[in-house]
Amino acid sequence: MLTFHPNPKPWHPSTPTNFSSIPFKARSFPSRIANSINEKNEPKQSSAGKIKRLVLTQEGRTKFNAYPDREFYAYPRFVTHVDSGFISTLTDLYRERLSPGSEILDLMSSWVSHLPKEIEYKRVVGHGLNAQELAKNPRLDYFFVKDLNQDQKLESDSCNFDAVLCTVSVQYLQYPEKVFAEVFRVLRPGGVFIVSFSNRLFYEKAISAWRDGTAYSRVQLVVQYFQCVEGFTQPETIRKLPATNGAQEDKGPLSWIARLLGFLSGSDPFYAVIAYKNFKPLYE
């Protein structure tokens, strides 16, 4: 369901749509996109990226809390899930990689925007599981509410966005192969997909493959999500590992390996995996 933020910019679907009123002065329309793979995981004809292989086993997709995610996120959480250092690093990354005037899809978003305040974008569409949170996000022109673990289709025409973002949420996707294939579809050629995360999570809602992994293995898992979809460029990884407990950082090899594997705590570590559709633009 696509839910519009109050005072949205015009949305122009390719087919006529009948709108009906819902709370928050919002409008909605049905999805129109064919799924990228069928129930038997066999490829189908689709404009989504071709899934070359499945990354996760059935066991790796399981969660401790098996109830629908819409129930877990039914009540808004007006909190930040990472610290100020992580947010600052992410905003700097967006400032570097997202061009002014871009059209952006913010997947699994919330009430907080991490986009640079001083940069103007043509259109920012948000997605999430709680309409109250999304309605408070000041950067969203409109948004839609959907459980991507129930239906991976994105309510968008193909080649519709210059960038797709996913912040501290990739650990909850049970069918990341399908979601990444859909992201490939909605990106324009040369468009970028930025997936960022830290070591925080709702433990009962994270998939088994993420819960049981280390920081290093989680980065490699996201790399594999990109690599399983034909057409993404070779993923680029970014790591920013803070010093422990505010002390001077120990740059010795054992300390570096321990922090890389997530064994030492401190302020929130920053990880991002980035890839482009078909090619990386020369101006990047």
Automatic annotation (TrEMBL):
InterPro entries hit by this protein: Methyltransf_11, SAM-dependent_MTases_sf
Gene3D superfamilies given in the database record: Vaccinia Virus protein VP39
Pfam families: Methyltransf_11
Domain (Methyltransferase type): residue spans on this chain: 154-195
GO molecular function, one term: S-adenosylmethionine-dependent methyltransferase activity
Protein name: Methyltransferase type 11 domain-containing protein
Species in which this protein is naturally found: Vitis vinifera (Grape)
